[in-house]
Structure of 5-formyltetrahydrofolate cyclo-ligase:
Amino acid sequence: MKKQELRKLYLQKRLELPPEAYQQLNEKLLSQFRKLNLNHIKCIHFFLPMREKVEPDTWLMINWIKQNHPLIRLTYPKADFATNRMRHFLDDNALEIANNSFGIPEPVAGTEINPAEIDLLLVPLLAFDQLGYRVGYGKGFYDRFMSECKPGTLFTGLSFFDPVDAIDDINSFDIPLHQCITPKKTWAFTGNL
């Protein structure tokens, strides 16, 4: 299938999730996330979930990291729709978060951080394939962001659903994931490391 078809299909699948199923899937994602080896991770970038798009609840993971790995720094994105780029803000005392005009929760004040400081990047997606390519919302924010990260940054997707066989219209701007966490397992794409 092509990206546009997958985008529509998987957004609809998420929107149709009953609240109880959504909660259970998030708990299973957290359980899989807790299995990640974080020994050499000093900084994790989390996207903040858009409730109206029924995105995975990253707040569960954020809170778990804060409780269990308090020395790991956390960062969150702020989208600039004029440039289709993102800025990244540290979770510290200066951080303030509010919904932007598109309903996306993001920092409105705080300490900006360089993408080169990020060791683990959690990437939002609607669908992914068996090679680690993903379908996002179509603006290319995360592909641009991933290209700015240092070599060795671990690109990790979060999905309620298993991968599709293939995304038919992958192009040279698409950057594959290294792994994708689903409720049942973490898919590793070792060829992308």
Notes: Residues 19-33 form the longest helix (15 residues). The domain at 3-36+46-177 is CATH 3.40.50.10420 (Rossmann fold). The mean pLDDT is 94. Residues 160 and 182 are 6 Å apart (CA to CA).
